[in-house]
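FORM 12-B: Structure-to-Sequence Request
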């Protein structure tokens, strides 16, 4: 990896290859950051998203900086429909998509681990910010997508890193945290986010299923934004 010596500010982007994280890439670029994307192969059912992440990184001209980190233990642990094949992904066809409790697609500790590793990458690259596409409004009910969680992780970064102790710090940027999916898409389209290169489906096929919780939120967002989703569906 080559790190430039200029004074341009830098940001690590947690890039899944999905709609939200790719929007964060676009927003960070618009904010003037040099982009350092990081993706995670954590045994997810929808591993195809990593290919999308590669395409997004290439689109933004930062393939050489794109890191894909393998985390086998999430599949070893299981406990989530995204990492355990014995747990079905809920969908609207069987009436399981709307849940009052935390859904089975929640992966225990995922964002905590992602942010920890992204912090390491940020320190090494001299990045002053980490962008993550969490959303506390139009989302699936995950506890690690809430502002309270992000604020606490920022506090830990300030206490447990060299840059934090030296007073420079690393901020966690969550530009989508209180946006509806429609607003995310509207803002992304304004800045040319390549949604045709993204995927959101939890089932991990070349064509999105259209009925899992993630697909449902995505399709609803495009409809409310008055735009057509450019990816193929079954």
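FORM 12-B RESPONSE
SEQUENCE OUT:
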């Amino acid at each position: 990896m080559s790190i430039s010596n200029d004074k341009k500010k830098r940001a690590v982007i947690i890039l899944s290859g999905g709609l939200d994280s790719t929007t964060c890439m676009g927003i960070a670029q618009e904010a003037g950051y040099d982009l350092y994307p990081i993706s995670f192969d954590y045994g997810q059912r929808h591993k195809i998203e990593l290919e999308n992440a590669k395409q997004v990184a290439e689109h933004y001209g930062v393939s050489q900086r794109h890191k894909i980190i393998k985390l086998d233990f999430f599949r070893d642990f299981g406990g989530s429909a995204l990492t355990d094949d014995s747990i079905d992904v809920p969908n609207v066809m069987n009436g399981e998509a709307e849940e009052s409790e935390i859904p089975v697609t929640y992966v225990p500790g995922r964002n905590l681990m992602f942010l920890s590793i992204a912090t390491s990458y940020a320190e090494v690259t001299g990045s002053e910010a980490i962008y993550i596409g969490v959303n506390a409004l139009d989302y699936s009910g995950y506890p690690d997508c809430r502002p309270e969680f992000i604020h606490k992780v920022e506090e830990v970064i300030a206490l447990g890193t060299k840059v934090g102790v030296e007073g420079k710090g690393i901020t966690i940027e969550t530009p989508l945290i209180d946006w509806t999916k429609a607003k995310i898409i509207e803002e992304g389209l304004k800045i040319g986010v390549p949604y045709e290169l993204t995927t959101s489906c939890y089932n991990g096929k070349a064509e999105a299923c259209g009925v899992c919780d993630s697909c449902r939120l995505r399709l609803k967002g495009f409809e409310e934004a008055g735009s057509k989703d450019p990816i193929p569906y079954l």
